Structures are given as C-alpha cells and as structure tokens.
C-alpha cells in the first residue's frame, strides 16, 4: 500500500465516523431506532413478586451507551421496542428481495408448527448482513420471531416466563467466523435468503438454508469475535456429539471462573450445582430486578451465567439449559467481560444453590 492510498483527508475521516453514516448501515437498533454496537434485553416473567407485578411483556434493556438496566420504553410485542426495531430491518430486506443482503432466522421451535426438532441445535436467533456489516441476535424465545411475511409479533407462549436476548453488530468479515460456529450448532433455519454473492464466504449457512448435507463438525469450537466498534466477545459452541454439560465441562474451565448459572428447569432432569472440577457452576435460585420485584428460576426460560467473583467479570448469554437431555443438544453461549454487562446481570442474583444443596 502506498502512502497516498492510506491517507484520508479530515473531511473523509469525518464522513466515515459520522453518526448518520453509521445509522444508515445494518446494525442492532435501540428503542429510538438508532444504531448501537450491541444491546442486551431481559424480558421479565409475567408473575413476579414485589411492588411491580409484571405483564409478561415488560423488559429490561441496556446497550453500549448505558451502564445499567433501564425499563424498556415499550412492550416487547411492539415494533418500537429494541427487538422490533432491529428485526424490522430484516423484514424490510425480505420485502425488497434485494440481492445485496443475506438473512437467516432459526429456532428449534418454529412458528405455526407443533413439532420440535431434536436433531437440530437447541438454538434460537436471527442474523442480517450485507457486504459491509450486519447483526446477530441470540435469544431464548420459542416460536420467535414470526416469518417475515407475517410481520412483527411476539408469541403468547413467550409471555409467562423470563427470556433473554443479545444483539451484536459485526463487520462483514466476522460472519465468516459465525458461519463456522453455525456448522457445530446446526440450527433449524426456517426462513433465509443467501444470494450467490454471499455463498462462497458463508458455505455452512448456505447448506443450512438449502437443508443440504453438512460436513463433519468439530465437537466444540471457540470463536473470538469483535463487534463493529471493536468490543471483544467469545462465542462457545458445541455439537450434539459433545455429550456433556457445556457450563461445567467447558465454559467455566475455559474462562477459569466459577459461574452462577440461570436456565430453564421445567423440562427433563435438572442438573444440580457442580463442584467436581476446578471451576464450579452454581444454579441460581432467585432473581431480583431493579423494579423492586423478584422471581424464582422456575419462572425463567432465559439462559445466562455470570462469574461468581466480581473480579472475573464474565457474562455469557446463550442457548442451552443445565439439564441432562441438553448434553445431547448442540448450542452455545456468547461471552463478554464488559464490566457494565457483568454488573447488570450479577446484581440480579439474589440467591443461588451451593453444591451441598444449601442456599447461599
């Protein structure tokens, strides 16, 4: 590269960093429709105890410009909310039938379907990108989101229990890594568009969209990702052949931290807290919100964990539960050491289960 080709005038630099240019690109969106590098969302259960009993549609929200949770300005079933604003870009891409964007929506429980695919990953999410950048949302809501032709909505089945979502904006080159993660997670994609211009860079996504035979996947894979604004994330994913509890067997040991874990406890055989390896995993029992309300883990369908020790500051949000049958399911977690995300989630933990079943 010559010196001249690397130089930008002040006017060009101003243009490249201008909020209007950033806002025009595909990205996670806040409740004002503005582009953000990432956001985290915690949909509250319908039945909480305390001063503010929930509706099952309220959510806590934070993004890269905030330091703590705030109560969402809208309800989760409204298009003005963060999920509605973000997903709206995907629906617009669907309606335009543009060859310049690619998208995929996946869920192990598909809208308008009574069947659950046990052969596919226990994964829920959606992504949208063009050749510049895009976003990836990982969430815990069954039957969500609706097919693009149906428009935005939120399933009634997702109201009773707590749910989580994380959205991250990525530059285009990061989606080649995400494509590799998709191979191991093997999601059930029910709506997608992958024009030919993207297929060479995203071969696994192309096969998943076409429901073609996939190449052999690694037992597990750890990917280092960077958001569009340069924030570091780690994405853990395991295939169905990695038959173990991802929290205990891998994530806690890889991050070298004891974890407090929150996950769905209604189906199958719940796993107890585990102190068998060097780094332990403790089940969360009780959660307290900034709204002076509390709810028990059994009222929560979300999947997340935080470091027990404040100095480690790991937070992971993802797909899999701590249950015996989940050892045979593929899925994963997005992890970060962002101190604001960590403090927001860690401060929710009121009570957790020790390994001798005594509450702490």
UniProtKB/TrEMBL annotation:
Superkingdom in the source lineage? Eukaryota
Reactions performed catalytically: Endonucleolytic cleavage to nucleoside 3'-phosphates and 3'-phosphooligonucleotide end-products
Could you tell me the EC number(s) of this protein? 3.1.22.1
Q: Which InterPro entries match?
A: DNase_II
Keyword match Amino-acid biosynthesis:
no
CDD domains under this entry?
PLDc_DNaseII_beta_2 (cd09192)
Name-wise, this protein is deoxyribonuclease II
Q: In which family does this protein belong, per the annotation?
A: Belongs to the DNase II family.
Record keyword Signal present:
yes
Please list which residues make up the signal peptide.
1-23
Tell me the organism.
Aythya fuligula
Q: Name one GO biological process term.
A: apoptotic DNA fragmentation
Q: Which keywords accompany this UniProt record? A: Hydrolase, Signal
One MF annotation (Gene Ontology) recorded for this entry? deoxyribonuclease II activity
